[in-house]
Amino acid sequence: MKYNYKDLGLVNTKEMFAKANKEGYSVPAFNFNNLEQLQGIIEACVEMGSPVILQVSTGARKYIGKEMLPFMAKAATEYVKASGSDIPVALHLDHGPSYDVCRDCIEYGFSSVMIDASHHSFDENVEISKSVADFAHTHDVTVEAELGVLAGVEDDVVAEHSIYTQPDEVQEFVERTGVDSLAIAIGTSHGAHKFKPGDNPKIRLDILKEIEERIPGFPIVLHGSSSVPKQFVDMIVQYGGTMKDAIGIPDEQLLLASKSAVAKINVDTDGRLAFTAGIREVLATKPGEFDPRKYAGKAKDYMKEYYKSKIVDVFGSQDAYKRGIEVK
Ligand code: G3H
Ligand code: 13P
Ligand code: ZN
């Protein structure tokens, strides 16, 4: 083990999820790729008193650098302490493609990993997920696995049509693998184009309910849950970008899911949209600006304010812990 997550001030997701399910909210899992996105996420969660899962894809880890990343997570937990907040922070691998990648992340300070073997057969998915859970648990790291396939583009996994999770498979899957949480496919999908214009943008809350009945109290995860806010899509287009027919999941449906056994909801695209809108706005309205703090700072502010509102509108996780103050 090169780094132990506990030395970085991180926690695994076990207690976070138990509290979220007991109190009827979900924990935000926000993806980040750079410092300003991390600042936006951690400041929003500190100010709202919300637990947070800092989520990193394989591609994001490559972009940041595996040596740099643990100390970005440590910087975030130090920020939490300095702000007077006591929100728990996890560092989670999103869509881990293999046992080896999951193991490497665990050895580099992740407190939680996802093994995404959902595109394999049921038995292969069980075997791969179990091998990750067995290793992770020897280091007190929690594991998320996925059953069913989301539409859209996943990191290294492409599924054109979603395959809903079959409720009659979930109990056997969690028992045989020993994983700590389960990502399911109920009609969400990755990216900014989740539905076609004219579609009824609905997720299958009926399947979610059936799944919950099969594994009562077990933490369920929703991927692909960005709402794709119109204000940022409009700004991106207004300031020279292209973004046609971008449609997300309505907030009200996600809030219903948060009140159920859904313990973690993944959001990446919304943050990307807010961030891009901020950068485009500054560069378009101030063409002479070339100080990165001006445009990346604006991008961070938009992302932070949006995530603060999303914590209330979607996760319901505000005030689960003591609120902290912004550290100047
Ligand atoms: O599920 C995918 C996440 O949004 C991460 O995307 O692989 O482009 O970092 P990425
Ligand atoms: P969105 O693309 O809807 O933000 O989903 C992100 C996600 O599921 C990351 O794993
Ligand atoms: Zn995902």
UniProtKB/TrEMBL annotation:
Positions contributing to Zn(2+) 1 binding: 95, 190, 223
Binding site for dihydroxyacetone phosphate: 191, 224-226, 266-269
Residues that coordinate or bind Zn(2+) 2: 116, 146
Top-level division of the source organism's lineage: Bacteria
EC number(s) stated in the UniProt entry for this protein: 4.1.2.13
Active site, renumbered: 94 (proton donor)
Protein name according to UniProt: fructose-bisphosphate aldolase
Organism per entry: Streptobacillus felis
